[in-house]
Amino acid sequence: MIKLILIRHGESKGNKELRYTGHTNVPLTEEGRHQARHLAIRLRKENITAIYSSDLRRAFDTASCIAEGVNLSVVKEPLLRELHFGDWEGLTYNEIIQGWGKLWNHWFANPLEVAPPGGETLLQLQERVLKALFKITAKHKDGTVVLVSHAGPIKCILCYLNSLPLSAFWDIAVPPGSLMAIQLSERQGVLLCERAEGRIKIAGKAKTYMIGDILI
């Protein structure tokens, strides 16, 4: 059985400025670096066997801080990148609302029906991220593996592992620097979530979803 630790990078310059950075490289803020150091201290006693990270700077810098504390190197995995936001890359929320207000509202109301213009759909994002997940879990059948990524990819992984519809995407809150530890097992080639703990919140509009055996 493998223990998978999902981590969102620390606060980035884009987070602080309320921008959709997607595939754009932005640095961590001082708060983000503090969050990375806190994660490193928290995980120091874990028997971590491998650390994988999105190749984007904000994730890789977070992962590198963790890796230094456990004397491991970070494996860059581009498939763990954030959603590509197309024409919305680098824009603030207000700029997007002003230019694409109707589409923005539609995307939040029906995330599977529309996508940022020129960007990825959520289904494309999930397919990409799950390729990385399956590749990593095929290589590591046991031990503790850390994945440092972004809000979108982590939401997609959580939906898959907990049999949640991808339409629950906006109901999942993944704050910068947050951590979710999941015990995984494999039955007939399918990954299953046996237990989960962390501080990632899932609050559905119609119901509250269960993650593992703990209500998050």
TrEMBL record:
The keyword Isomerase applies. The active site is at residues 9, 82. InterPro entries: His_Pase_superF_clade-1, His_PPase_superfam, PG/BPGM_mutase_AS, Phosphogly_mut1, Ribazole_CobC. Its EC number is 3.1.3.73. GO terms for biological process: cobalamin biosynthetic process; glycolytic process. Transmembrane segments: none annotated. CDD domains: HP_PGM_like. It comes from the Bacteria. GO terms for molecular function: alpha-ribazole phosphatase activity; intramolecular phosphotransferase activity. Keywords: Glycolysis, Isomerase. Substrate binds at residues 8-15, 21-22, 58. NCBIfam families: ribazole_cobC. Belongs to the phosphoglycerate mutase family. BPG-dependent PGAM subfamily. This is Alpha-ribazole phosphatase. It comes from Thermovirga lienii (strain ATCC BAA-1197 / DSM 17291 / Cas60314).
